[in-house]
Amino acid sequence: PGLERRLGRGRSEARPSERCSSFCVARLGAADVCWPLGLSFVGSLPTSRARSAMKLKELLYVANIIDYARIVTLYWAVISNGYTFMGWYAVSYILDALDGPVARAMNQESRLGYYLDMVVDRVSSCVCLHYAATAVLSGDTFLPQSIVWPTAVMLWTCLVLVELVAHGTVMFLSEVLGVHQKKMGYDYAVVRMYLSDKRYLGWACISFEAFGLGLIVNSIPLTLLSFPGFAFRAVANVTRLVALGGLTGSRKGEESSTDR
């Protein structure tokens, strides 16, 4: 009874069906008290030691280890060139397709994994776009001289607007301001098509990377076949960015009217 009073509201009643193997259950008075093995609680919150242990465990999730492998393979791509770059980059991209399903299958979804995947995605695409622009400017592609500079500018513009500004704005609005994803540009058909149909989304994302890789290895078929999807993803994200500009403006207007 004394221990029960000390725990107070920190205890949680649990039915047998809700208990898992990582929890121990003690009988205190009339209630079943359940807490993780080896973790101590103050009130209803875990101690800093418990939180640190939980975060350390997340670092070793298989899904997160896959993202670490993506970073390694991306580094190997950066220190390579031509088809070797393309090969390591493709391995990194394949791993990107695996980390999400693995996290869900093993019940290892975490905030760390979410942000890690997003950051590696952005870094990967920026690397590919930059190396593609560099290949174009160096004259290592089939492109005629008259469109070399416009193509390089287009690639660097996509790097900034699509990968950094557009995705960064979406991240800020959803994570910080709590704006629902479906309010971000869904008034535009190209955005709805891009986000609502996984077929279009997959085609656009793969084409976006393949276009840069095609320029890097100077492959005419790969570059030409992937350009429509590249353009579609770029247009969808820039359109969404324009829509988000109006959304942030309206939110500021609402906040100022509320203050008055």
Q: What can you see in these coordinates?
A:
The protein is mainly α and 260 residues long. 70% of the residues lie in helices and 6% in strands. It contains nine helices and four strands, in the order H-E-E-E-E-H-H-H-H-H-H-H-H. A two-stranded antiparallel sheet has the order 1-2. It has a two-stranded antiparallel sheet with strand order 3-4. Helix 5 packs across helix 8 and helix 7 (189-196) packs across helix 8 (198-216). The longest helix is centred in the last third of the chain and has 40 residues, at 220-259. Residues 1-44 and 252-260 have low confidence and may be disordered.
**Major beta sheet summary:** 2 strands, antiparallel
Form type: globular
Can you give the mean pLDDT? Answer: 81
Which structural class do you get from the secondary structure elements? Answer: mainly alpha
Beta-strand percentage range: 5-15%
**Radius of gyration computed on alpha carbons:** 24 Å
pLDDT < 50 runs, ≥5 residues: 1-44, 252-260
The N- to C-terminal Cα distance equals 54 Å
Strand order of the largest sheet: 1-2
Give me the count of strands: 4
Give the helix/strand layout.
Elements lengths: L1 H6 L15 E6 L2 E6 L4 E2 L2 E2 L1 H12 L2 H17 L3 H24 L5 H27 L10 H28 L13 H8 L1 H19 L3 H40 L1
Antiparallel strand pairs: 1-2, 3-4
Helix pairs in contact: 3-4, 3-5, 4-5, 5-6, 5-8, 6-9, 7-8, 8-9
Short description:
This protein is mainly α.
